[in-house]
Amino acid sequence: MRRRGGPPKRKVCRFCADKIDIDYKNVSLLRSFITERGKILSGRITGTCAKHQRAITTAVKRARMLAFLPFTVI
User: Fold this and answer.
1) CB within 8 A of 69, min separation 6: which ones?
2) Domains in the chain: how many in total?
3) Which domain, by its residues, includes 42?
């Protein structure tokens, strides 16, 4: 069986493409960037650029401090 060739398709940052603002109060958006255990997913997995990955990290940490998101899920 042969593998289909070519490099894997690069993911596009959805914040750059759709001009979405990252806000710590938008919990439904932030939940898609954390695991079910509460850990922040990397930019490689989510496909976000470095600029927006830093903003996501800051927003998730801020939402945790204000009790919008849990620190851990047991």
Assistant:
1) 27, 30, 31, 34, 38, 60, 63
2) 1
3) 14-65
Q: Name the pTM for this structure.
A: 0.83
In a domain, 74, yes or no: no
In a domain? residue 9? no
From first to last of its 74 residues, the chain has per-residue pLDDT tens of 667 777 777 788 999 999 999 999 999 999 999 999 999 999 999 999 999 999 999 999 999 999 999 998 87
